[in-house]
Amino acid sequence: MPAPVIATQNLVKSYPVKNSKDFVAVDGISFEVAPGESFGLLGPNGAGKSTTMRMIGAVSTRTSGDLDVLGLDPNRYGPEIRSQLGVVPQENNLDLELKVRENLLVYGRYFGLPRARVARRADELLEFAQLADKAGAKVDDLSGGMKRRLTIARALINDPRILLLDEPTTGLDPQARHILWDRLFRLKEQGTTLLLTTHYMDEAEQLCDRLVVVDKGRIMAEGSPADLIRRYSSREVLEVRFGSTQNAEVAGRIQGYGERVDVLPDRILVYSDSGEYELERMSAAGLHPITSLVRRASLEDVFLRLTGRNLIE
Amino acid sequence: MSNFQHGVSDSIRSQTLAAAVAAAARTRRYGSWYVAEHRFRVMRSYTQTVLFTAVGSPLVYLYAMGVGLASLVDGNLGNDAVTGVSYLAFLAPALLASSAIAVAAEEFTYPIMLGFKWNPTFFGMNASSIQPGQIINGIVISVAARMLLTCTIFYIFMLAFGAVPGALGFVAVLVALLTGLAFGALVMAYTATLKDDTGQLAMVQRFVILPMTLFSGTFFPLDVLPPYLHWIGWISPLWHGTELSRVFAYGLPEPIWLSLVHVLYLAALLTIGWIWARRITVRRLNK
């Protein structure tokens, strides 16, 4: 494996709380990201993903542990590390007082890049972000998806070696998400290292070569999406609904079905290599769900298995 | 460099380091100016306001107070009743300093709230090679530029109104700049501490800036007030600025040590406010 571009070891971030114990947002996280890799932090809101991103982005001082970004320690080389990063924060902080293209021009200057080069790069990036016809528009007039693409374009103005994306598609409609994913795919193909956080399992499956599942500031598992699903779930999942009052009672009668049975408030999940088979077993036993669905196992199931909770609560 | 190893060879490390150091070198040196560049670009979107206030306020104030009110004062008390000069000559340097305060009150408040909270561009800057302290420096640079422009225009109007008898009058422009920045740096630091604007900035306007303008020897000498109110002038940066402006504009008689105190007091406020604002910014951006 080539030298990692990001390496964390026992990374901790805690915040003092008045008259109480410190709040530990990141609680001993260790992982490595290889150059060109697309690496994800998957976990629910409040898992410590954004805090981890900020430490890697050299804008948040770690409480303890080791952190290496491009071989440099953020405590000492903040501006140097940031000169090599592109950052797409969770909340857009585009400048609403400036026009679309101006946002790129101004941002490029923060890296000390010559005006002519920034102007050229800005035009390329507007093309890339499919915003060329919006160059003179006000940022406020852009749709959510366009703002997100502009933020990504802005993050690329310095030709970063690593792109940090914090919840890149949260709040976007499905079509806007797909456009965005397509753009990120292209970057990945060009060899840009991507580090992203998400609480969407489909996003993690689409974009990540490898990921860590994070919960309450700790890493629960690490691997490729397929690998994690293989390790922590069956091949298929049968979802059945008997109505909210019946689910618990029925669950008692189907224990032993498949590899495992999970009862959620609104449905029962049966993990099995063949969902159809389990469904037939159910009918044979005289159990007829209101709705039933057989699907391939996903990272959502991995998360549920690891934490006993849903990703989106 | 951190002390744990991942098989990263020293040569790759030093190459990366060299590249990163080179990429960040310009921003380390000129980052404050890049932030100022950003502010200038934003100010361009309200050029009209900048110019209108710069031209309009000397016209309105010098005419209304310096000519209108002055005819009343001079008419009743004589042409040299106030510290030995005409009322217009007495008032104009004070209004000049006030115009710098007005710029400070605008540029050191809302843009700070905006950058931290309403449209958090400071976080965006901080994610680039820019450092938190440079954000504050850049704002001070850009406001100083607007203030200098405003005060220079004001001074030109003072000349046109025949309100500057002294030969060293132009120095009053620099005094006004120092006054505006000294007061503004404190306001900037205070604003940087605000998580929300629940009316604090309006309170500053109403209960700090307005009383300060009224009780800083602007419209009448501090001596006219009862002695137990003189302290308002002594702590007010505007009083120190106004008195010093008058020394240069028409040679207000004042011991040299007092002039020195004016300069030192203003410089101290500027330093304290600037450092304080930088500290708060470092803390707020490092989450």
UniProtKB/TrEMBL annotation, chain A:
* Subcellular locations according to the entry: Cell membrane
**SMART domains associated with the record:** AAA
Question: Quick one: a GO cellular component term?
Answer: plasma membrane
Q: Which GO terms describe its biological process?
A: response to antibiotic
Family per similarity comment: Belongs to the ABC transporter superfamily.
Domain ABC transporter, first and last residues per copy:
6-241
Q: How does it sit in the membrane?
A: Peripheral membrane protein
- InterPro entries cross-referenced by the UniProt entry: AAA+_ATPase (IPR003593), ABC_transporter-like_ATP-bd (IPR003439), ABC_transporter-like_CS (IPR017871), ABC_transporter_ATP-binding (IPR050763), P-loop_NTPase (IPR027417)
* Top-rank lineage group of the source organism: Bacteria
Write down the Pfam families for this protein, in alphabetical order. Answer: ABC_tran (PF00005)
Please give the organism: Cryobacterium serini
Specify the protein name: ABC transporter ATP-binding protein
GO: which molecular function terms? ATP binding; ATP hydrolysis activity
- Which keywords does UniProt give here? Antibiotic resistance, ATP-binding, Cell membrane, Membrane, Nucleotide-binding, Translocase, Transport
Name the major location.
membrane
